[in-house]
């Protein structure tokens, strides 16, 4: 497809330690179109951030190692690029907003210098021109340009996150990766940052991968959603598919564990158990030990993504062999929630 920005196929990433071989990503595949936002959703340790770091070939090595797969960015396989070629891609074609804005900024450089640094490197501007661009970027994210000469400790958490966004967008990237961009922020500031990001995505005509465990954030900003569990995508589709036509038991469990304003007296229904140890994954479906629908067959083989409804053209796919039984249906769908 000519309109693809990113095409990941069969990505496998391990962390090889003295004690064990940690299987962080176990065959993830997905595509991202131009001007599209994809949400990667799942619990801590599901492999979301490792997948994102792989796109930039930034998996820390050692102990991390990309074992197999391909990551094609705008027609070029990132995993085959030299270090020099990768440095031209990072920050220029692909930018990343890291998880904690409090620690993502250099405390001994002004915020203007930090924004200007990537512009100088990638666009070969003079220091003065780069600083002017930095001021423009601060204005764009709602910060007065005269604050370009202030240091990170002089900003609040929400303002720091805006600075990090300004750094990421300074070179007008094709793809923005946002790793839990609202985690450390209070609810009011979260809403402001999300609104800012939505507007900037439209203005810059770029694509975005949003990594989060917050389904509310996903509903607010994402076109497509991939639900990740134990290093695999278990369900993928449009936001409408995932929210209104849920098909995987794990996705159902995520929704059931959310507070429901319509049923205030109801108890929360958390998913029982814990995510499996990635260095010792169970046989077959990794979710089977926690799944209320699991049968003996679920531990026999790893389920592969299949189109929902049985049509090969469906964008909505689920990795659950319970659908071998044509009568199988999640409780959520039976209840019409």
Automatic annotation (TrEMBL):
Location relative to the cell: Cell membrane
GO cellular component terms given for this protein: plasma membrane
InterPro entries: AAA+_ATPase, ABC_Ni/Peptide_Import, ABC_transporter-like_ATP-bd, ABC_transporter-like_CS, Oligopep_ABC_C, P-loop_NTPase
Domain ABC transporter: 6-255
Membrane as UniProt keyword: yes
Record bears the keyword Transport: yes
Sorted UniProt keywords: ATP-binding, Cell inner membrane, Cell membrane, Membrane, Nucleotide-binding, Translocase, Transport
GO BP: any one term: peptide transport
Membrane topology: Peripheral membrane protein
Family: Belongs to the ABC transporter superfamily.
Protein's name according to its UniProt entry: ABC transporter ATP-binding protein
């Amino acid at each position: 497809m000519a309109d693809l920005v990113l095409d990941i196929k069969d990505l496998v990433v391990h962390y090889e330690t003295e004690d064990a071989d940690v299987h962080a990503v176990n065959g993830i595949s997905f595509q991202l179109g131009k001007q599209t936002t994809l949400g990667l959703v799942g619990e801590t340790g599901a492999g979301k951030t490792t997948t994102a770091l792989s796109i930039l070939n930034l998996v820390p090595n050692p102990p991390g190692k990309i074992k197999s797969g391909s990551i094609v960015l705008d027609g070029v396989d990132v995993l085959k690029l030299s270090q020099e070629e990768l440095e031209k891609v990072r920050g220029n074609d692909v930018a990343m907003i890291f998880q904690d804005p409090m620690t993502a900024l250099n405390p001994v450089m002004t915020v203007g210098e930090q924004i200007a640094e990537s512009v100088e490197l990638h666009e070969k501007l003079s220091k003065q021109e780069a600083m002017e661009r930095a001021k423009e970027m601060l204005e764009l994210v709602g910060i007065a340009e005269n604050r370009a000469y202030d240091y990170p400790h002089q900003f609040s958490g929400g303002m720091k996150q805006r600075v990090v966004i300004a750094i990421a967008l300074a070179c007008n990237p094709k793809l923005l990766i946002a790793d839990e961009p609202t985690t450390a922020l209070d609810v009011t500031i979260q809403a402001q940052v999300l609104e800012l990001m939505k507007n900037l995505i439209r203005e810059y005509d770029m694509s975005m991968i949003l990594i989060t465990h917050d389904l509310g954030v996903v509903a607010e900003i994402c076109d497509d959603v991939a639900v990740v569990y134990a290093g695999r995508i278990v369900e993928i589709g449009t936001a409408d598919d995932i929210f209104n036509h849920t098909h995987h038991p794990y996705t159902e469990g995520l929704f059931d564990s959310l507070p429901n304003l319509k049923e205030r007296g109801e108890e929360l229904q958390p998913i029982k158990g814990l995510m499996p140890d990635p260095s010792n994954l169970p046989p077959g479906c990794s979710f089977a030990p926690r799944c209320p629908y699991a049968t003996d067959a679920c531990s026999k083989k790893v389920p592969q993504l299949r189109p929902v409804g049985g049509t090969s053209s469906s964008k909505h796919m689920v990795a659950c062999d319970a659908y071998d039984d044509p009568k199988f249906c999640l409780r959520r769908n039976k209840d019409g929630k």
